[in-house]
Amino acid sequence: MSDSQADSRTPEQTATSSRSWPRIRSGAADTPWRRALGSLLRNRMAEVGGVIMLLWCVIALGAPLIAPYDPQYQQIESRLLPPSGEHLFGTDELGRDVFSRVVYGARISIPAGLIVVMVEFVFGSLIGALAGYLGGIFDLVVMRVADVTMSFPPIVLALAIAAVLGPSLQNAIIALILVWWPEYARLIRGQVLSVKRREYVMAAQCLGVDSGRILFRHVLPNVVSASLVKASLDMGNIILFIAALSFIGLGVVPPTAEWGAMISSGRFKFYSWWLTAFPGLAMLSAVLALNFIGDGMRDALDPRVLDR
Amino acid sequence: MGIASHIVRRLLLIFPMLIGVTLAIFVVSHLVPADPLAVILDQKAMSNPEQRQAAIDKWGLDSSLPEQYLRYVLNLARGDLGVSFRSKRPVAQDLREYLPATIELAFSALAFALLAGLPLGILAALYSGRWVDHLARVISLLGASMPPFWSGLMALYVFYFRLQVLPGPGRISSRMVMPETTTGLLVVDSLLARNGAALSSALSHLVLPAVILGWFSLALIARITRASLLEVLGMDYIRTAHAKGLYARQVIVVHALRNALIPTVTILGLEVSWLLAGSIMTETIFAWPGIGKYAVDAARTLDIPALMGTALVIAVVFMLSSLLVDILYAVIDPRIVEV
Fold it and tell me: Using CA atoms, how far apart are residues B315 and A157, in angstroms rounded to an integer?
């Protein structure tokens, strides 16, 4: 076992293995994380979600190869054409191919959702872990800021921040990160508070291990699962929020192809139902798939399952 | 610690939270990368030196930020949320006018969510693993995954445009004579005015927005009812009730549901505030003249006083309903005050 691997174990685990007690045959491979992964892979719904999301990732990456037209290419003479062999999802009011725009839309919604979730997961978890571990004035300030942020419904605060910063995808992303990080901070803080009094953390403190090492090597790896579950469940929500801000006109600005903005430009054009139906179905399939994966991860990483 | 002191402690917490919320609004409105006067005055007023000076004096813009915040809070305490750029009227007056429409919509959505969610949750628990259970699961997954602005548009397309069984956007038919405003709630006002045609128009206009807005709450209510009823059904006292020879219906209605519905009842307070927040998108789609649409219109036109005023009102309602739920929990389950 390499040094880095040895470091990632808790002192308790190190002490146990160094006594060379007889090991249960399956014990070496059967870690809680492995069990969780196995459970996730066996979950049929999560599997379906995974396949759909994989498909969306392929579509996003291969958009230039998949889309038959340039998403911005306007052909006024063929505007508002219904779905046909030539234009699978029809054309919009400027004669742009809706299928190509839906395909390119995946390049905005999925990475934007991923960026927001990753930043708030890392930032929120870090702040929450520090607050829980250090306590004192830092904890007090961070938690009061979190309380105040969470006393607004997310859409209301995101709307206010995005409006004040000005309409752009970047500002919508900033607004959502500012609104969402406290949920992660509060979640991780609670977990850290319960873990930091455990024997293995105290043992590490007695051994003279410095605080940073204890926090990042021993505490965080043991509390991060709840945040991971939350992140997986949040990703779909974030995609919906970004689309909602774009729908209102505070996110992605035209002519960029984005699902929420596409639905907005097609609203109330009931004779051209394809303008709203297809971008919405694309979003629904992606968010549904992410919720399937999130549900699967929740089942797999549930602490009761991990402790089993 | 007794329940009374727990309630008092929670009530006292409101004040620091109110300071925090007003501070947050103050900070957000100062994020505008422009002249702070542009946040308070519209362009026409900006070019008028007298109006500029009046606004500077009123909001203390020539003083330090803490002083400005203090001035802002004092103005708030007098019910002054500023003047809307678009309507040129005090924001508080605008909100008073728009709030009843939102309340009417939110409560209709809640009524729909309860009427559909409770039976669905109960059936899903009683027939766990059967088709009703799967149906409940699909409904709640769709509720969590469907963007409301899209489902609203699709519902309008199907029921208004294609089938023509329900009316389009708006609160009441444009051909209808509006009943005299008493409460601001159209359904109630129509009833008070004994105006059957207006009542029927108002009710039919409520159907689609209430269903779209209430769908998410329906999913939550069904899920919580199902989980809690399943838990209660596995308890010893239910087995005892069965063993006593009671009818299954009696056991479920009299013994199980009474306890199983406690979590559902307690989340209703939170649901109302979520519905107020959710009204932002629903009202935009259905041209519903409530505070949600007012906020979105304000955000689109950078009408900062209107936007921040609405955000503040929604945050305060949100906070008060969480407080109410908290107190309700303490009354129903006194064990939590010992924590």
Answer: 9
- Residue B299's CATH number: 1.10.3720.10
How does pLDDT run across A230-278, given as a tens digit for each residue? 898 899 999 999 999 999 999 998 889 999 999 999 988 999 999 999 9
Cis amide leading into A255 (omega within 30): yes
Q: Which of A175, A136, A130 is nearest to A155 (CA)?
A: A175
Query: Is residue A5 very low, low, confident or very high in pLDDT (cuts 50, 70, 90)?
Result: very low
Q: Give the closest-approach CA distance of A218 to chain B in angstroms.
A: 28
Q: Is the ipTM of this complex over 0.90?
A: no
Contact check, Cβ <8 Å, B150/A249 = no
Number of residues assigned to chain A: 308
Cα A203 to Cα A196, A209, A216, A298, B323, distances in angstroms: 11, 9, 15, 31, 41
Q: So where are chain A's domains? A: 31-68+90-306
B17/A151 Cβ within 8 A:
yes
- Cα–Cα distance for residue pair B298/B103, rounded to 1 Å: 19
- Global pTM? 0.85
Name the average pLDDT for chain A.
85
- Contact between chains at A236 and B145 (C-beta distance less than 8 A): yes
- Residue B90, beta-bridge partner list: B83
Please report whether residue B160 resides in a domain.
yes
Q: Is residue A307 predicted with pLDDT exceeding 70? A: no
Indicate the fold that domain A31-68+90-306 takes in CATH. MetI-like fold (1.10.3720)
Side-chain-side CA neighbours of residue A119 (13 Å): 14
Residue ranges of chain B with per-residue pLDDT less than 70: 1, 33-36, 39, 333-339
